[in-house]
Amino acid sequence: MDLNHLQGIPMKTLLCTLVLAALGLFHSRAAMSDTLDDIQKRGELIVGMEIAYKPFEFFRDGQAVGFDVDMAQLIAKGLGVKLRTVDAAWAGIVPALLEKKFDVILSGMTITGDRLKKVNFSQPVALGSVVFLARMNDGKINRAEDLSGKVVATQLGSVGDRVARQFEARLKDSGKPGYSAFKLYDGFAETYLELGLGRIDAVSGALPVFQSVIAERPGRYKIIDGIQDIESYLGMALRKGDDRLLKAIDEQITALKRSGQLLQLQIKWFGAAQQVPDAIPAQLP
What we know:
Helix content: 40-55%
Number of domains: 2
Protein name: Transporter substrate-binding domain-containing protein
Distance between the termini: 58 Å
Keywords: Signal
Shape: globular
Domain Solute-binding protein family 3/N-terminal: 44-273
Organism: Delftia acidovorans
CATH superfamily of the largest domain: Periplasmic binding protein-like II
Pfam family, one: SBP_bac_3
Oligomer: single chain
Number of helices: 10
CATH architecture of the largest domain: 3-Layer(aba) Sandwich
């Protein structure tokens, strides 16, 4: 500092200037610390998920298990930290992420254009195609168009909600009636109960979830596809601006794909391997 330039400046003004400069330096250093730094400092990756979405995440003997839990464990290990999961209600999971209640979301979340306006996503880790689940003994429902005039349900705020509404619009555009009713539930478990009791005719949701339901209840349900024109994929959601964390997580996912570990998890939890791209597709649901 050139002291000659300080001559004639009142002491009070000089002190204020030095304090403001110090504060500015403090804030600039604090701003440099991002979510990845926070994760590494605490030694823990905090992942938000709705632990009621089998086979992605659910409780077994009091412990959270599932595809997403195993994925999160491997990603945390790759980052050199431990994993902590936070059970969050689906309807408020994105707001909770934005409020920094956890670092990321990994909860069978479909990558959509609307969601990308609010959060960033990792590269895809699984298929998320939306289909209908119907009763096996319902001979009147054999293709998606047969849901015209029927009662359809899904979970509030799920991608099945949005896609089912889009499909109903397509039915109406083709000159057919829409659904006789479209019901929304807080969780998918309620929809399976209602479907089994015959109170609704079909549930819209992600293919891997319904494959798990059918595997657990053989002979009771069937899958009806043809509801979507484009493929859907699932990924990890992060806050906008967490670019270093996104890069680090994508690197971990790429490593899991190349090592075959992601394939093994898909087979373990979905019963079959899935082909997913290494980047988010340009066309999204």
